């Protein structure tokens, strides 16, 4: 079954192969592809900024620069004033043809060394997917000026300076108002720093024949509105035992809020029974706040064992700590063999003491926890989040959710799904605890680890967007509870 272009994510090399096949096997000239890209980009520009009268093109020496110059040609024919800055002259036949077409239309060239001229919209065609090092010299200076000018920037294919495969800046990178991506989504546009660089994203397929994509399996896929996995419809004649028993383990001294958030999130997403194993001094507060939770104070592994025997799934880690009490509970919970959602300090303990996790488990590290599990550092994880997520999933034979902007869900076979939702307001205490409860509830209701992780991440991120509205600053983790319940009821068979 062909990949859905709306959700297929490719590496830069894969898109280059599609381009090459379009030219060599399908007979579409490279200059024609460039013209199609320019037409799509100019349509986007006019739709987004209909009042724009002055354009400035920043055109590099490659095909990305050619795309920008042909945008300029179209703009000139439409009566707009256009100036192009070329830090380097075009280096390929198609790019040189684009420059000639721009000049024939009456386009003028500015001096890139003089900096940016005044414009209503800037078109970024400095660097495309082939960039492998930090921008230097005049190009780097122009990118810095773009970011400081306060005017909108339309990036062509990928913001200049952003690595198309990883979403990380190679040095200074353009922060565009919008990015139009050509042929297929580049996987780096949806994770790491990409959200700050891309602005709003559009995809232009350029009428590439299906044959050109034949045999090229997308490297990853975006989660879409349907997700592709659902919870079973509930019959009227049922009881709570049909919807799973989740046990949330954590809440060392002073961290009772974390385990309470995980427990309530699980209830809001439909778990039939949710127990909490925590420090005795948290029992009263949790019961007072949410009496539907079954809270037990446990002083060590033997007390936990009784609760584990009744549970179907374990949510392990919110507020757990790393002391002797924490380690004892962690060790016993993993040994029980129940599918686990392993989060927070349970991950830190796993990094200190490698131990198999039960089959059907989900690990939910943020970049710092991922770095500890991999024996590396945060910079290395963020430098290639796809590689880090896949490495963790293979190492622990579990589904892994690598949290952050553009959360990644990876399985041990190398499949990766990417979450396009979420907002900066979710970077606050307790959000990870809520996600743990959400995924745990979905596991308890019978979803596989892969489906529970994908649907759980989607529910969590979309609930965060609904709760934030247009005001992400000050968002609380508990603000997600009401939209979580609403959204969870939409994903039923």
From TrEMBL:
Where (6S)-NADPHX binds, per the record, is at 63-67, 128-134, 157, 258, 319, 366, 433
Q: In its keyword annotation, does this UniProt entry include Iron?
A: no
The record's listing under InterPro entries reads: Carbohydrate_kinase_pred_CS (IPR017953), CARKD (IPR000631), Nnr (IPR030677), Ribokinase-like (IPR029056), YjeF_N_dom (IPR004443), YjeF_N_dom_sf (IPR036652)
* Residue stretches making up the YjeF C-terminal domain: 223-491
YjeF N-terminal domain boundaries: 15-214
Q: Which SUPFAM superfamilies does the entry link to?
A: Ribokinase-like, YjeF N-terminal domain-like
A biological process (GO) annotation for this entry? nicotinamide nucleotide metabolic process
Name the domain of life this protein comes from.
Bacteria
CC cofactor: Mg(2+); K(+)
Q: How is the cofactor bound?
A: Binds 1 potassium ion per subunit.
- Where AMP binds, per the record, is at 403-407, 432
Task: Enumerate the residues binding K(+).
Answer: 64, 124, 160
> What is the annotated role of this protein in its UniProt record?
Catalyzes the dehydration of the S-form of NAD(P)HX at the expense of ADP, which is converted to AMP. Together with NAD(P)HX epimerase, which catalyzes the epimerization of the S- and R-forms, the enzyme allows the repair of both epimers of NAD(P)HX, a damaged form of NAD(P)H that is a result of enzymatic or heat-dependent hydration. Bifunctional enzyme that catalyzes the epimerization of the S- and R-forms of NAD(P)HX and the dehydration of the S-form of NAD(P)HX at the expense of ADP, which is converted to AMP. This allows the repair of both epimers of NAD(P)HX, a damaged form of NAD(P)H that is a result of enzymatic or heat-dependent hydration.
Name of this protein: Bifunctional NAD(P)H-hydrate repair enzyme
Taxonomic source organism: Dokdonella koreensis DS-123
**Protein's gene:** nnrD
């Amino acid at each position: 079954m062909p990949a859905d272009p709306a959700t297929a994510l490719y590496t830069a090399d894969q898109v280059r192969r599609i381009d090459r096949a379009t030219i060599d096997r399908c007979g579409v000239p490279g200059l024609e592809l460039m013209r199609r890209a320019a037409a799509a980009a100019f349509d986007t520009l006019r739709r987004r900024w209909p009042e724009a009268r002055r354009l400035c093109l920043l055109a590099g020496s490659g095909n990305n620069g050619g795309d920008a110059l042909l945008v300029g040609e179209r703009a000139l024919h439409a009566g707009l004033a256009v100036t192009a800055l070329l830090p380097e002259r075009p280096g390929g036949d198609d790019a040189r043809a684009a420059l000639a077409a721009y000049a024939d239309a009456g386009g003028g060239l500015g001096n890139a060394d003089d900096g940016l001229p005044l414009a209503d919209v800037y078109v970024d065609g400095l660097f495309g997917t082939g960039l492998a090092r930090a921008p230097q010299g005049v190009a780097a200076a122009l990118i810095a000026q773009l970011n400081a000018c306060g005017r909108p920037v339309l990036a062509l294919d990928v913001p200049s300076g952003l690595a198309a495969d990883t979403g990380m800046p190679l040095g200074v990178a353009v922060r565009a108002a919008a990015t139009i991506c050509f042929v297929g989504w580049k996987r780096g546009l949806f994770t790491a720093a990409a959200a700050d660089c891309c602005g709003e994203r559009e995809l232009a397929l350029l009428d590439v024949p299906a044959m050109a994509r034949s045999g090229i399996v997308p490297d990853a896929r975006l989660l879409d509105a349907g997700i592709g996995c659902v919870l079973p419809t509930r019959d009227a004649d049922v009881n709570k035992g049909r919807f799973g028993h989740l046990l949330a383990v954590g809440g060392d001294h002073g961290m009772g809020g974390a385990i309470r958030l995980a427990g309530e999130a699980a209830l809001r997403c439909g778990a039939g029974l949710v127990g909490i194993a925590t420090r005795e001094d948290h029992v009263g507060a949790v019961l007072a706040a949410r009496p539907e939770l079954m809270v037990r104070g446990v002083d060590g592994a033997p007390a936990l064992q009784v609760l584990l025997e009744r549970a179907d799934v374990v949510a392990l880690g919110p507020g757990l700590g790393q002391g002797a009490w924490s380690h004892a509970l962690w060790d016993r919970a993993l040994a029980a063999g129940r599918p686990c959602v392993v989060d927070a300090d349970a991950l830190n303990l796993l990094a200190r003491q490698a131990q198999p996790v039960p089959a059907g488990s989900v690990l939910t590290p943020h970049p710092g926890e991922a770095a500890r599990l991999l024996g590396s550092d945060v910079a290395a994880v963020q430098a290639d989040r796809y590689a880090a997520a896949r490495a963790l999933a293979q190492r622990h034979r579990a589904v892994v959710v690598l949290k952050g902007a553009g959360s990644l869900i990876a399985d041990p076979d190398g499949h990766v799904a990417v979450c396009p939702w979420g907002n900066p307001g979710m970077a606050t205490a307790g959000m990870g605890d809520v996600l743990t409860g959400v995924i745990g509830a979905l596991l308890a209701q019978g979803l596989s680890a892969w489906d529970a992780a994908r649907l759980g991440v989607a529910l969590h991120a979309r609930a965060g967007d609904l709760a934030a509205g247009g005001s992400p600053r000050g968002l609380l983790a508990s603000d997600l509870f009401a939209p979580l319940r609403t959204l969870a009821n939409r994903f039923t068979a």
